[in-house]
Amino acid sequence: MLLRLLGRWRRKPREGPQLVLFSRPGCHLCEEMKDVLARAKVVPRFRLREVNIEEDPELLKRFERSIPVLEIAGRTAFKGRMSPADFRRKYARIVADSGPESSTD
User: Fold this and answer.
1) Which helix (H) or strand (E) holds 75?
2) CA 35/CA 29 separation, integer angstroms
3) CATH topology for the 15-97 domain
């Protein structure tokens, strides 16, 4: 029993899904969404990549009128406003759907 508990303690924490936030400078809704993400207390912790749509003509055309857009694990999860409760709920559902990751220790 003790060995099993020690094994769990020594394992690396599970890494959460990648989040991609499509935004642009000067977007107040983008700043609000970043603030919600910065304050989010979710497990496992996610990795966030922010993409400035103004740096890519295709993304600018695709998202010009719909930012911010947040993708979780490759799926569009939110457009525009996002409440902390809605984020936690959707994030938990996506993490649960992805199932446990296999250990490579």
Assistant:
1) strand 75-79
2) 10
3) Glutaredoxin (3.40.30)
Q: pTM for the complete prediction?
A: 0.78
DSSP 20: E
pLDDT tens for the chain, 105 residues long, are 556 655 555 555 567 899 999 999 999 999 999 999 999 989 888 999 999 999 999 999 999 899 999 999 999 999 999 999 999 999 999 888 876 553 333
N-terminal to C-terminal alpha carbon distance within the chain: 19
- Give the Cα separation of 11 and 21 in Å (integer): 29
CA distances from 73 to 33, 55, 60, 87, 95 (A): 17, 22, 21, 13, 9
The domains of the chain are located at 15-97
Contact 23, 51 (CB under 8 A): yes
The SS3 call for residue 104 is coil
